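Lecture notes, unit on binding sites. The following record was shown on slide 14. It pairs a sequence with pyridoxal-5'-phosphate.
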Amino acid sequence: MPKAAPLPWPQLLPSTLPTPCFVVDEERLLANLRVLETVQQRTGAKILLALKGFAMFSTFGLLRQVLHGACASSPHEARLAREEFGKEVHAFAAAYSEADMAELVELADHIVFNSFAAWHQFAPMVQAARQRGRTIECGLRINPEHSEGAVSIYNPCAPGSRLGIRRAAFAGQRLEGIDGLHFHTLCEQDAAPLARTLEVVERNFGEFFHTLKWLNFGGGHHITRPGYDLDLLCQCITRVQERYGLQVYLEPGEAVALNTGVLVSTVLDVVDADMPIVLLDTSAPAHMPDVLEMPYRPEVVNASLPGERAWTCRLAGKSCLAGDVIGEYSFDTPLNMGDTLIFLDMAHYSMVKTTTFNGLGLPAIALAEQGTHALRMVRQFGYEDFKMRLS
Ligand SMILES: Cc1ncc(COP(=O)(O)O)c(C=O)c1O
């Protein structure tokens, strides 16, 4: 892949940019793709894009050059993958309706089931689609019952988790017709948690591997984060592929788009309420819901923790929610109406999770093109996008 240094964000953004606006930088996406390509070249693993994390399809032409396809959580994502990504389309959901499966058997190359009952229910539909000429491989999602995550809403192995089949449920089951197993247990993690998880997976499910074609390690691998242990990741993949003759798949969402995009916002007002409160033309619940849901405090260009710079304030959104607060930050000088703020690392999850709560307009989506750094407005939203979801 060609190499060019990404420009600092303020240099990429024209002063005329309408806000709020997500801007994704192709150079930064390329930098991530180079890392993912290295993993594929070193190991022969196949990496897919998890659409739930990043579905900006105007970038798929670039992503397709390296990634082997996309994984979908629903028929809509599977259709987007088929229409816009091409290559392999994989699907997993905690449960499927008959209508979901009727669409998925026409769209997906791999379908992963979350229970033996679901597999048995839909095996005849898969078989009928194969007779019509579709090639579909089927898999089961397993729950290794080994937690590496501290936050329970992001821990598929937490007590009571509905995600994945536990080892005990394999007793008395036959795996004829099953081509692979899938586990997804990590969230923003390095390779050491993967290595520990893999040991448990091998110990408890290894006896089934000899009849399978593939093992899908799911997502949650922070592969493109600086300092990520790529050697250990490659060792894990190579060991499984060599020992069992399996094809390993990875399906990261976040790692594909990590640090590749920003949300640009404008200061609408500054009010005083125990401290300066900066009101923005964006909103935490509507445009960056993970700020409240995870929760986390996004980084802002030219800002630091409260008290570290001369002027401390609270950044807040313009919705009615009292808790529409992004966080407390300090700046070198006070912010004023019309100033621009750049929220970092907003390409993954924020863009796919936006809502029109309060009738707020959805942020526009722009792309900074590789090589020229020219900014292309890909999509702007309006009243119709709000109205069409209601009746
Ligand atoms: C089954 C599955 N695959 C892949 C992913 C992508 O994870 P991430 O974006 O953290 O890499 C998720 C995220 O929830 C998932 O549930």
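Take-home: Residues 26-43 form the longest helix (18 residues).
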